[in-house]
Amino acid sequence: MDIIIGILFLAIGIGIGYAFFYFRYGDRELVNDLRQNTTQLQLEMDTISMDTKEFEQQNRILKEKMWELLMKNEDLTKISSELYRYYYRIKESHAKALELVDLLQSFDKEFDEKIKGNSDTRQIPIQTIHNVDIKRF
Fold first, then answer.
1. pTM of this prediction?
2. Contact between 120 and 114 (Cβ < 8 Å)
């Protein structure tokens, strides 16, 4: 009886083993495709990971350059505003100079009489450029 039970269990074990082998052999192509897909996806993940690290480094470098350019832009903005102030002052002085030229070109009889009157009564000292104090603004 023990022998029959042993043979029976052996037969059942062989049947179960054959069933697993049969089902696995039937899905063999699917399992191979899944394995290939897994290895390809792993390679793609590694490539994407390396690209991500490289892009992060490039992003850090670009941010540093961007901050440098922003600082240079601030400096150039200050310089351009200062140049505009100089331009405005030069433009105003030009307008004043034109106004002075217009005043000097107009003939004033009273002024001419005053000059003639002063030249008759006393001598006006003529100053040379060496005697005059030149002031810069």
1. 0.41
2. no
